[in-house]
Amino acid sequence: MPRPPEPGRNALLTAGAEIAGREGMRGLSVNAVVAAAGMAKGTFYHHFPDRRSYVVALHHRYHEELGAVILAAIAGCEPGAERLRTGIAAYLDACLATSGTKAFLAQSRTDTDLIDQVHERNQLFAAMIGPDLTELGWSDPEPVALLVIAMVAETALAELYSAGPRPDLRAALTALIERDPRHQG
User: Residue 100 and residue 80: Cα distance in Å, rounded?
Assistant: First the structure.
């Protein structure tokens, strides 16, 4: 059985999420994180060999938490339009409610330490919605899923900049996804 993360590691990750929420990825210096966590610098290096490892762990934790919210929301739903709408709404609502979202969605796209993580996350979420798109009639759901992930991420950013939900964008997103792909030409 794997050992649960130590309280010190969790405190460092929590401090980093708070800093990312206020200052973005650039604010995530080792000194800033240990100061916010009230720990010595040595404690940081006990848990993480370097800043890159820390940022990757922070990004991973953020998306694990978002994934858990989505999975809870769609639990028991059969693949299809309703499950996809529910999952997207859960994701967008969680992005609005979670500290550091702007940093982990926008800034992580250009952070060389996170490019592989962003790609991996997008592939994971795309695989999650593939069955929904198949049920909606998309004959090649994989590329469509990647485009849906991109549209959802852009919607999340627009909502963050608007400081609230954008029903117009959510409706447009749903309409684009749910169009009958068999009748497009």
Answer: 30
Helix runs in the chain, H state only:
7-23, 30-37, 41-47, 51-74, 81-97, 101-105, 115-135, 141-162, 167-178
Look up residue 61 and give its two tokens. 């934790």
Interval 115-174: pLDDT, tens: 888 888 889 999 999 999 999 999 899 999 999 999 999 999 999 889 899 999 999 999
The rounded Cα 102 to chain-centroid distance in angstroms is: 10
Predicted TM-score of the model (pTM)? 0.83
Tokens 């404690």 belong to which residue? 43
| Residues near 15 by beta carbon (within 8 Å), at least 6 away in sequence | 33, 34, 36, 37
3-state secondary structure of 40: coil
Q: Is 133 exposed, middle or buried (0-12, 13-18, 19+ CB in 10 A)?
A: buried
